[in-house]
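=== Structure Prediction Worksheet ===
Name of assembly: unnamed complex
Input type: mixed (protein and possibly other molecules)
Chain count: two
Listed entries:
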Amino acid sequence: MSESTTFRPRSSKGWLWLALLGFMLILLTTFPALITPDEPLSGVSIPGLLIGWGIGIPCLLLAFWFPSMRYELQPEELVLIYGPLKLYRVPYKDIKKMTWQDLQISLLSSFRLPGFALFTVPYGDEGSVKMVSTSAANRILLIKTAKETYGITPADEEGFIAVMKERIRS
Amino acid sequence: MLFITLPVSLLVYGLYIYFGYRRDARYLLLLLPGLPLSALVNIAVKAPIGLAVGDVSGYGVGFAIGMPVLLLLFYALLAPVTEEAIKISPLLVPQIRRLARPGKLDALWTGFALGASFGLGEAIFLAIQFNTVPQYASTPWYLFTGFLIERFLTIYAHGVMTAIFTSFLFQGWGKALLGYLSAISMHFVVNAGAALLQVGIMDANTVFLLEIVTVMAFVVIFEMVRRRFKQMEPVEEITGEVVFDADEKEL
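=== Predicted Assembly ===
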């Protein structure tokens, strides 16, 4: 069992929400400046522009990388990948429990939208979960280790669980 | 800008209430009863009281430099005292009260939904008010982006303030009063920026940043209270479908 196996997440419209949020933030903070060229900053505040572009551009970037989200089962560890980033590595020997769960959302998070959750997301019931998923809260596979909890949404649920169990056992 | 603010706020806070707690659609209906309350309290309570006190004192209505401290304090507390009271008035309806009664978490989320409902109504009321001012009425809608962001944050703040009040409400008169005073204090802090802007001590950008910081503090407070109440609830034995358990090895 030395080769890597890759699983894709189940499909969602998370990329659309990300793109919409990014475009809306940029447009709503920039549009007034564009239509009043004589006074480019009338009707817009500098903090507003900074917030709009500062959050809008990363959102567009994440929307662009959305199709590359995947879960790679390597010989020794599960790697959660988003775009060019290998976000989290979960050694099989550290895994204590895996459960399917519907989570309760909390506002203490930034990258969680309908059909999308990334990075550390606090949930009302589970506390902080490291997410790489195409669902914000519905049917999340929680992978618990002694120190962390990871949340993913593989499309081939049974296939993923079977390969995971096989890797953990070996 | 109201036609963007309302649907966006309804969608975001509706999703927050639905997925944040029991996924019970009845809590979504709580976003409705507070809608007329802002107009009601402004027209029927705050305006007559403010006008009467303004006439008697001779200083007119609203904040101004040189006012006696007591009068400043009166105007600063008028909105918090009246609005925090009316925001929980839908709880007089038995069906709504039943949603808030079973436990502290139920009271907290019922309060949040009722407060957010009041905030949504306030956004509608303010938009109508702006429309009657010629200077604003002639301004294109896309220049009111500040309204969208400011109202979006204020709706959340209204939710948290009422949530804090209702979470104390059913624990005896003493605690109910403590909850009311807590909500008033929080409301006072939220309104402080606008008051300082009116008297010319702060500029609009600083007030806006102050509101962002205040609402961020409210997020932390709400989530801390929510987590504490959650820990106080009885632990459910099975919270999900277990597919692997290292202690039992195979399921």
